[in-house]
Specification:
The complex is a heterotrimer of chains A (268), B (323) and C (272).
Chain A: H1 2-13, H2 16-27, H3 29-37, H4 56-67, H5 71-90, H6 93-97, H7 103-137, E1 142-143, E2 149-150, H8 152-164, H9 167-184, H10 187-206, H11 236-262
Antiparallel strand pairs in A: 1-2
Chain B: E1 17-26, E2 29-39, E3 44-48, H1 55-62, E4 70-75, E5 78-79, H2 80-83, E6 91-94, H3 106-116, H4 122-131, H5 147-159, E7 165-169, H6 177-192, E8 196-201, H7 204-210, E9 213-218, E10 221-227, H8 228-234, E11 239-244, H9 247-255, E12 261-265, E13 268-272, H10 275-287, E14 292-297, H11 301-310
Parallel strand pairs in B: 3-8, 3-9, 6-7, 7-8
Antiparallel strand pairs in B: 1-2, 1-4, 4-5, 9-10, 11-13, 11-14, 12-13
Chain C: H1 2-28, H2 37-58, H3 66-69, E1 72-77, E2 88-96, E3 110-116, E4 121-125, H4 128-131, E5 135-137, E6 143-145, E7 150-154, E8 172-174, E9 178-181, E10 187-193, E11 200-208, E12 218-226, E13 230-235, E14 246-255, E15 263-268
Parallel strand pairs in C: 9-15
Antiparallel strand pairs in C: 1-2, 2-3, 3-4, 4-7, 5-6, 8-10, 9-10, 10-13, 11-12, 11-14, 14-15
The chains are: A mainly alpha (268), B alpha/beta (323), C alpha+beta (272).
């Protein structure tokens, strides 16, 4: 297993798209923070948007709310969607599967490596966003979602926790991209479908009459951090989001594993 | 995952490859139709057949890349059902053109693949690169490799596993004449080292040169099965095309020999018979003062046999200059 | 083309179908919206207390605390015919609180308009009369954003949904600025009943206005009964004569609250 993981890591490390992704996560937030702070009117229609022009914490949270809609799913599917499909594209399934590596081992190695990379990208993106937002706009006390003032020292922890709370649904999207990668054998489709699906779920979840669907959507968990910023705090949606994300991930991985094990490797 | 290969009842080691009744259908096409064959340890075995005969499908089933509809294949006594991927222990090779990660260099590809085998020393990677004569190109990305270089890298990647059974699918395919010569020399060298080699090809001469036993496949089924001497016994007599200074006299002399069959290929005289008969005719021509301008073998007998076995309508060309 | 499309289309379609099935399942087991009247009635005062105290601090008042304010709210969505549940931009909340320096108006509350989203968060805009405008002057004389003018809040969807029991009466008001004369010479005025617990009921009395302010000829009185958020035109039994230019209208309420001081309206339209 560890051999297969090291094999996948070595391939990832050599790919420009992985480097570009990490670089984008690291540097992307800087221009975004600069542009936001130069706006004349605050984007009040997004949560924390009304404070986003003069409070770094609020800006970091507003961006989190905004990114969840499609940027985060895109970030994870860029690499995960390519993971299995690229073996088809390069015709290398036969190269690896003729080397005493079972499909099972290779499958889980790819899953592990992609979950790990997504976690790394999120951590880099969160750190960079929070740091740039605070550097550009300063760190005054933050008005929480119960109107309470949160001292900067405490706000920093809460904002970081809010960013990390989107990891479960994000990993859910990673698994969705992996499923599409196995199933469609096309990188482009496996990158596009999760992003489109994220937007569709976002839309479904925001239509009032479709409210019963909300709890089952992966995108709902992207908003479960709201409870961290209220007083008193509530964590019900976080737990619910965790369970829903785990269910999505399990279904996607089971489907992907099933398809990969059954298929005949004829190409390449 | 490892299972001890079960020895045969008589105590001898199990066959390197033993296929029994392998069938694989795609829709209404029976790509492999009840193929059974047996490759003994240490032999060089040829699998011969035109493109689409089912050789590659057979090899994919051997490597577990596709699942047979029925039948079993055992490698050194292990089957996929019992041993899973353990079947491939001691087995290496490639199917169709070997493929690599284009964004890695040749050396990086080998190093990465070596990880899957449990790691190989730096020295071993350099050694196999040297064996296939790629040492000076190993620092280049595979994306820029020529077909022949990839083919050689495929052999290197296989050797990295220190296999007991090497499976090569059309190793000379797509190579230029120089490349073909080098590849054949390489396979010969490897085979002489005691390695069991299963070689698929659609070139009779490639197989004829190095194989002990052959299976000829046509349309998914086995058309011939046996040793090369057995195959040669089936072969028609070798034919030659003749150009002389006096074709009329030459034809008369040829017809005078009962051990030769004589025909015409357009304007050119064609004779078929045992080697002694043909050399006898040459002596007759010289004695009669007929100048011999050209004596060209037609297709080799085995090639002719190959076409006969694999072409049902029997429309195989019997004339034309051999390559 | 088919070879390329099918492997992509089939999974995509399968996913869409799965999502549709999920939607069906969700509706079959519909637990009801998390956005409810009771939860808003608890959440809004909690948020408002904080932002109001913040506003007062900015203005230089330091004594006021969240606990002192003790706000109480009653929420309603879209009038009596709409169920008080679910996200939407038609939520109205009436809220009263204790600030000795800013007493409540006669009806006893201020009216807040809410946009509630399905993610259990809302944006509320406050009544300017009581809370001020979008910007304010802080203690040092700078113009700053008024934190209580418009504010966001979120609530826990798992909190208690038992009714708070807070009620406020509807506010009755004359919505017409003139008395319209109908074809047969009767004056008509329009009444509006605001959001509240039971609507508005009572009697409307009108007289013809006189130049010296003495009580003029009676135009009679009419009982009225309006549901909350309803507007109704009331026709008086008496007729106007030529030369009657203004009428004085007095409202007395038995349900709901309204100003009981007489209002003078100009007559508009032909008088017999």
């Amino acid at each position: 297993m560890s051999a297969a993981v090291r094999f996948e890591l070595r391939k990832l490390a050599a790919q420009w798209r992985v480097r570009a992704l990490l670089l984008a996560a690291l540097l992307g937030p800087i221009p975004v923070a600069l542009v936001m702070s130069a706006q004349a009117n605050p984007p009040k229609d997004t949560l924390f948007g009304r404070f986003a022009l003069d409070n770094g914490f609020a800006l970091a949270l507003m961006l989190l709310g905004f990114l969840g809609q499609w940027v985060l799913p895109l970030l994870t599917s860029v690499v995960a969607g390519d993971s299995f499909a690229s073996e088809d594209q390069h015709g290398t399934w036969k190269t690896v599967l003729t080397r005493s590596t079972s499909r099972n081992r290779l499958f889980w190695a790819k899953v592990l490596v992609n979950l790990g990379l997504t976690t790394l990208v999120l951590v880099v993106l969160a750190a960079s966003t929070i740091a740039s937002a605070l550097l550009v706009e300063g760190a005054p006390a933050l008005t929480g979602l119960t109107g309470q003032l949160i001292a900067p020292g405490h706000a920093l922890w809460l904002v970081a926790a809010a960013w990390l709370s989107v990891l479960p649904p994000l990993l859910g999207f990673t698994c969705l991209a992996l499923l599409m990668s196995v199933w469609t054998r096309s990188s482009a489709a496996a990158i596009a479908v999760p992003v489109v699906l994220a937007l569709a779920m976002q839309m479904l979840g925001s239509v009032g009459t479709l409210e019963p669907v909300r709890p089952f959507l992966l995108t709902t968990a992207f908003e479960s951090w709201h409870g961290l910023l209220t007083d008193p705090r509530f964590t019900g949606p976080l737990l619910e989001g965790f369970v829903v994300s785990a269910a999505w991930a399990a279904v996607c991985l089971a489907g992907a594993s099933f398809i990969l094990h059954r298929r005949d490797i004829t190409g390449g | 995952m490892t299972t001890t290969p079960s020895p045969r009842p008589d105590g001898s080691p199990p066959a390197a490859v033993e296929a029994v009744g392998l069938v694989k259908t795609y829709g209404s096409v029976r790509a492999v139709d009840g193929v059974s064959l047996r490759v003994e340890p240490g032999e060089v075995y040829g699998m011969l057949g035109p493109n689409g005969a089912g050789k590659t499908t057979f090899l994919r089933m051997l490597f577990g890349l596709i699942r047979p509809d029925s039948g079993t294949v055992r490698v050194f006594g292990r089957s996929w059902a019992e041993s899973g991927v353990g079947v491939l222990e001691g087995v290496a090779g490639f199917i169709e053109a070997p493929r690599f990660y284009p964004y890695l260099t040749g050396r990086q590809n080998l190093e990465a693949l070596a990880l899957l085998d449990g790691g190989a020393s730096r020295g071993r990677v350099e050694e196999v690169l040297g064996t296939v004569d790629l040492a000076d190109r190993a620092h280049l990305k595979v994306g820029g490799y020529s077909y022949g270089m990839k083919q050689r890298l495929g052999v290197a990647a296989s050797l990295l596993r220190d296999p007991r059974l090497l499976v090569l699918d059309e190793p000379a395919n797509g190579l230029d004449p120089g490349g073909i010569r080098d590849m054949r020399a390489l396979v010969k060298r490897l085979a002489s080292g005691g390695l069991t080699v299963l070689l698929s090809s659609h070139h009779m001469d490639e197989v004829e040169e190095i194989c002990d036993n052959v299976t000829i496949m046509a349309r998914g089924a086995v058309a011939f099965h046996g040793s090369l001497p057995d195959l040669r016994a089936l072969a028609p007599e070798p034919g030659h095309l003749l150009r002389t200074t006096d074709d009329v006299a030459a034809e008369r002399l040829a017809l005078a020999r009962p051990d030769l069959r004589v025909g015409r290929d357009g304007d050119t005289l064609r004779v078929a018979g045992q080697r002694a008969a043909t050399t006898g005719l040459v002596a007759d021509l010289v004695a009669a003062g007929v100048g011999l301008l050209e004596l060209t073998p037609t297709q080799t007998p085995l090639e002719e046999l190959f076409f006969m076995l694999t072409d049902p309508a029997g429309t195989a060309p019997t004339g034309g200059a051999a390559a | 083309m088919r070879r390329v499309l099918i492997p992509v289309l089939v999974p995509t379609l399968a996913l869409v179908l799965a999502l549709a099935a999920l939607t069906g399942l969700a509706f079959a087991t519909n637990p009801g919206s998390t956005v409810t009247k009771a939860r808003l009635e608890r959440a809004l005062p909690a948020v408002f207390a904080h932002v109001y105290v913040q506003e007062q601090r900015l203005a230089g008042r330091t004594g006021l605390t969240v606990a002192d304010l003790d706000p109480v709210a009653m929420c309603d969505r879209g009038g009596p015919s709409v169920a008080d549940t679910g996200p939407g931009s038609d939520w109205v909340c009436l809220m009263s609180w204790q600030d000795p320096e800013v007493p409540m108006p006669t009806e006893g509350y201020g009216k807040f308009e809410l946009t509630v989203r399905s993610n259990d968060c809302f944006t509320a805009s406050s009544p300017s009369k009581l809370v001020g405008y979008a910007t304010m002057t802080d203690a040092s004389g700078k113009t700053v954003t008024n934190p209580a003018y418009e504010f966001d809040g979120c609530f826990d969807p798992d909190t208690s949904n038992t009714p708070t029991g807070h009620t406020f009466p509807s506010l009755l008001s004359l919505t017409s600025t003139t008395a319209q004369v109908d074809a047969s010479g009767h004056p008509q005025v329009q009444l509006g009943c605001g959001t509240g617990s039971d609507g508005c009921a009572g009697t409307l009395t009108a007289t013809v206005a006189t130049a010296d302010g003495s009580t003029g000829r009676s135009l009679g009185s009419v009982p009225f009964d309006l549901a909350e958020e309803q507007v109704k035109t009331v026709t008086l039994p008496g007729r106007l004569r030529a030369g009657d230019s203004q009428v004085v209208v007095t409202l007395s309420t038995t349900t709901g609250v309204g100003s009981s001081s007489p209002a003078t309206l100009a007559v508009q339209g032909a008088t017999g």
